[in-house]
Structure formats: C-alpha cells, structure tokens
Amino acid sequence: MWYERLGFDDNPFDDEKTSNLVGYDGVVEDVLYGIEAGNILFIEAASGAGKSALLRVAINQFKGEGKVAYIDCRKVGEVNIEEVILKKYGFFSRLKSKIPKGMIVLIDDVQSLSQKNCERVKYFYDQDYIRSIVFTGESFSKVNFTPSLKDRVSKVITLNGLSDGDAVDIVRQRLGKQAEVVSQDIIKEIFQRSNKLPKPFLENVQHLIEHAVMNNPEMKVQHKDMEHLFKKVGTRLGHQPVKTLAKKPKVTPKKAEKKRSKKQTRKRRVKKKKKRVPTAEQRRLKILKHKIREEERKLKRQLAVVERLKSKIEAKQNGDKAKQSVKEKAQEGTVRITPIKKKEEQPKVEVAYEDIAEKYY
Amino acid sequence: MEPWYRQLGFYHNPFSIKPLSYHNEIYGYDLDSIQKKIAEGNVLFLEGEYGRGKTSILKKIIKQFGGRRNLIYYSCNRLEGQLDLDQLLKGAGSFLRRLIGNNSKDAIFLLDEVQDLSVEDGERIARLYNDKQIKSIILVSHDYQDVKFGKELSALIEGNVIRLNEISDQEAIRIVRGRIGNIRLLSEATITDIFDISQRNPRQLLKNCEKVCRYAVEQGARIVGAEHVRKVLGAVPNKLEKPEIKIIQ
Q: Which of A353, B154, B157, B211 is least crowded, fewest Cβ atoms below 10 Å from its Cβ?
C-alpha cells in the first residue's frame, strides 16, 4: 500500500486517528467540562467541519465509565428514543424498562430528530437519568427544540472551520517524519479548494499523496499531481464516493497461490457440511446420559455427608483428642499454623482542607 | 485539568440546573399554602416562566409527602398517544394495594408539562376527580392560556391558578448560598449583579454563576470581580434570549 512505502503500518489519514484535534483546543476543553459538569451543550457545525471527531474525543474520555451513548439521528427518525437508548444498555435495562442513571448522551444531527423525542431526552435529563447531553446540528436558531429545552442549553459552540495554519499543522501531525512529502503551499491550496472543511480536505490530501507516492520516483507531491487530482475527481465536498487514483498493486507470488480456481471454490461450496439433526434414538441417549450424571452427583453428595458423619463419630469416640487445642495439635504436627502477616501501615494522606479554606473562605 | 468546583472541594457541579437534583431549596414561594390545598383535595394549576422552579416545586412536594406512595408524578411530554390512566393509578398506593390491584382513592396527580396533555385525557382525569377516584390534581405548565382544556377540567381549575412570581434579591442570594456556602468567591453584590444580568430568572442566575465562577477560578482569582462578570457575561444586562454563543475561528 502507498503508506507502507512511506514507512507507515496504517493509513495516517484514517478517520479514526483523531486523538489530537488541531485548532479546536478551546472547544474540546469546553465540551469535556460541560459533560463533566452535567450541562447541555449544542455544537453548531456544517457537515465535514469536524464535529464527529469532537464527539469521538468525548467518547474516548468518558467511555471508561461505561455510560456513553452515541446516537445518529438520521438513523432514528420517528422511533421512540427511549428504546434506542435502552438498546445500548443491554438486556437487563430493557427488562426493567429503565434507563440507568448518569448516562452521557451524544446526539448527532439533531435536526433529524422529532420534537417529541427531543422532549423525551429533556425529561430524562431533568430526572437525572441522563447526566449530560451534547447535541450537534447545523444551526441552533433553526433547531426543532421547544423553548423549554432551549432554555436549558448551557452553551452553544460554533465550529467555523480551521485556518490555513491549522490545516498545515494537521497534515504535519499525521505525516510525522514524512512531512516533507507535501509542501506547505500545496497543503494550503488544497485546503482552499476543499472549501476549508477538514474532512474533504484530508481525503484530498490522502489521494494526492497516494498518487505521488505510487507515481513519482522521489515520492514527493508536485503541482502537476494536484492538477491531475482535481481534473479527475473535481473539488471534493462532503461525503462523495471516493475513487482511488493509485495504480493497482502487483499480485505477488504468494497471493497468486492463494487464488483459487472457480472449480475449486464450487467444490468447496458443495462440500459444506449439513447440520446434523439428532434422531429420536440419539436424543433418548442424551437424556439418559444426563440422568446418569445427575445420579452420580447425588451419590457423591451423599457420600460426602456420610464421610462427615463418620469423622464426627470418630471424634466423639476419641473424646480427649478432640479437645486438644490448636497449639498442641501444631506441636504434634497434625495442624499447621501459618503466621498472619501484619498489614504494612500505609502512609496517611492528609487532605489539605486548610488550604482550601484559607484560599476561598 | 480538574473542573473548577472540584478545586473548591465540591464533588458535583453546585450550580446544576436539574430540578431539585442535589439541593433541597425552594425559596420565594409559599409551599405551605400549596400543600394545604392539596390536602384539602383541590385542583390547582401552577404557572410560571421557564426556569422559575415549577418542576422543582413538584419534586419538593413529593419529598414532603413522604415519597411516591400516594403521589403520581407524570410528565406529559413523554406521552405517546393516549395517557394510560389505569397504569398510572396502579402505580400509587402501597405495595400490598398494588399487589391486590386495588386502586388507592387518595391518589394525588402531579402532571408536568400539561401543554402536551390532550383534551380527552384531561377530561378523563377530571371525571376521575369528580367520581372521587383521585384526591387532588396539580397541573403545571408555562402558560395557562396556552393549554387547551375541556369543559370539566376548566371548571375545576377555575380560580385555582397560581402564578410563580419573581423572587427578590435576598432570595436569589439565598439560592446561591444554599448551593455554594459562605464562600468568599462570590460576594452578595456580585450575586445581585449577576441576578440582574440574568433577567431575574433563577435558572439563568445559576447558569451565569457557574460560567463566571469557572472563569475566575481558572484564572486563579480568589474572588469574582466585576471584570470577570464583564468578560463572561457583558456588563449591560443581556436582553437577548439566546444562551451564550462562542464562535471559534
């Protein structure tokens, strides 16, 4: 693959690689604080501006506590959102028909959610089943919220896209040591042509580098590659199907071996084993085996009881010996005493309440 | 970084806007008279602006009546189609009663967000009240004029509309002190300033106090000053209804 030629194990422009969001530092802090403090947030962003990446950062931060639900409203529509949230929490929640307390709910593209569902989410927030909510949508002023819900929103954060410098930083961060593959000017130009939206911008950069690596001997992006890219696929916006520009990798000898002929695959299909349906006889045998095992277990238990009784009787008969103390038994060698280790005293941590009091009271 | 309230020694956000979540305060409203009316078996309509404390009052009433044994709280914005009254009534009463399936006659209905209650459901509830199946009803919504009621229910509510009034500065200070204690961070003058900027609405007051305190503590200040308030909220009382908008460039 093209990234292997540059020394990467995975595609550095992979969507999931957003541990460090460039250009949105203040926003990330606000979102994480809002979730921690139990607020309702609204993130205003056009498609491709990076709101899903922002939500992913939030998920990574809070997923350890096991209570984050991400809901893509384009897939929910008119469905009762209670059921959607319950589904995320498995069988027992559905049984109790209750949403577990303290959940963090991330609702993406809320303009696709019915007003009824928005009200339901508000109800669960008020009753503290939901700890905090992050809504994302195209516009806060046009969103389908009741005034009552809008009144509860603590902060509206607008993502306006990134600057040219941020674009360069993102690419540098992703490429690491291979940053010289593409120059700053080319990055800025692609950013302009991608309407300054992060998602299509990264896709375009990826294709450009792919093309350059597979076709240029020096493996560096040149201006002619850029013209080639935009001639073939045009300026890319939003979620359009992506065409690969790189040449198809040659089939190595190992791969050729793995390729099976059509006849062989057909034979394999025919040879699929059919599931065995047990006959009546086999079923009866199975039940009998099960019964025998049960009987064996019963007998074992009875034996164990008998053994215990025996030992009690013996003990009574040898009355004196039974009254021996543990120490004497230890001396005899019939009982072994293990010394109890003292717990190491842990250093006491003194909470500095005094400091807090001094500072603030 | 730890949130600002943890640095002050609070585990939870002291300015949480959830109705009566961690705090037990209701200031400025005469709860005793409301409770008397419920005990006497009346139908009440509680009206108030967003963020004044309607749901908090209902929750306080539930607590004071000793839990949900005879109280049925339902928020009508959850409704899908018809209200299942039988199911709701079965929820009231002691465990034994529920087991036997006998409906309690002392049930008190607390219905929140009744702008979403249909006229038919309202009439059914009114009939239950008239048949003495339920003891009293409290209906809560933003504006009495906005809600559609049938004849029976309107007749019952007549003259029993309680409007939540504005609270005074002292009461606002008590709310904030009840949340954050006698902390030096927020002085009484600052609280009243923020209250004015918040258009004298309790929920906005809490939201704005949170923003201002967060900003001040993150700047390392020990006391919230006028410059913090100005920076976060703007010096002039904000007449816009939108919450704070932050634009990232």
A: A353
